[in-house]
């Protein structure tokens, strides 16, 4: 009986201990602090705009969205749970706030770490007004840039001038005249060259100065028949039907041999020049006959047969029955024409399609713009306006695959025409056109629309922009404020330099650096009646 009583007492004692333990732990849980909601809210003031963070109690993160920059944070506001404290004080971080800040919140002897995270709103990608495509080439590399001596035989009158043209401007050849016209009768008969008046002597001096300036670099001599209306050829090489092929070939051989004796080798020969204004009547058949005879004479006289260029007509004929190029190709003597040459003037822009047609016939022959014009007289009333037409005439030809060019009356400085002519010519030597799209479209040829072109030479990009209007329409014309140019591929390496001409700049233009937005975009304001040239270096992404 005593043994049972002892067991009952132990059981009751165990039950009491369990009950006491349960009560004790229950009381302890009641005293444990709730660690959620230690921060009721957290706000940040950025440039007078207040943002409230989103609190995630599970991760103890307070997240902010829509803030563009942490540098604009000027104040913080927050509320803690009663009895809680925070370290460090958020106010002490205002001058050095980072995208993530950690704070310790303490209450009743326990601590929690909260992270304030600011997700910076990325800057919107700039929307370019014009897009440059550095990898999308068209046309051809513009390999040849010559000085034309047909206008002025002594045009390279000093070593200084030679250095300017053939070193600084990078010209690699000259265009020279074959004389013999009535006003300069240097070829009076077969086998005779009479330079008693010193025409060729003056020319040779210019050539030699140019050769000296070029040193060991490429130098091409291109000879072309000099025009003198209906008296362009001496009497002994022509009859009532124009030139006599065999006789004219003798005169050309005399010229080439004479120049060889003077140390001048003719590399390229144009046997006709603006046939619509001279009496030569050099049809494709006659052209072939002249070349065949000249080849025989080259062998006999021991001179190098030059490459042949033609037809060097004043304005292209296009797709008509008597088109010189069509008739020439019909003869199946393509070996008698090595280079296609044409005179395409500003007044010819309306017949662009005729030039385009003739170029579709030339195959892989080079295309030389053998006499682009920028007539100072025609631009007298408004040279800036006329410059648009002259420059776009050159661009018509670069668009169609021009390989070489030689301005009639090239000028590199001194007036607006000279400064602009140099700016649109020198950078495109050895460059090739690349696509640029502006808001008026890449195919725009209409005057007074925004005209843009881009060229690439190695890693050098040249961009041209013309925003022109007549003087009468200035009030209604558009200023393109902070016009943005973007690269489709690649990155800008360094600064974007520019030159800009307006009615208010000196003739030398205004120079500066465009606003570089980032590595792929830059901007500049394009005033009314402005011509702008940019140049920069590109590197791979």
TrEMBL record:
It holds the Pfam family DUF4971. It comes from Bacteroides caccae. This is DUF4971 domain-containing protein. It comes from the Bacteria. The lineage of its organism: Bacteria, Pseudomonadati, Bacteroidota, Bacteroidia, Bacteroidales. InterPro entries: DUF4971, GH.
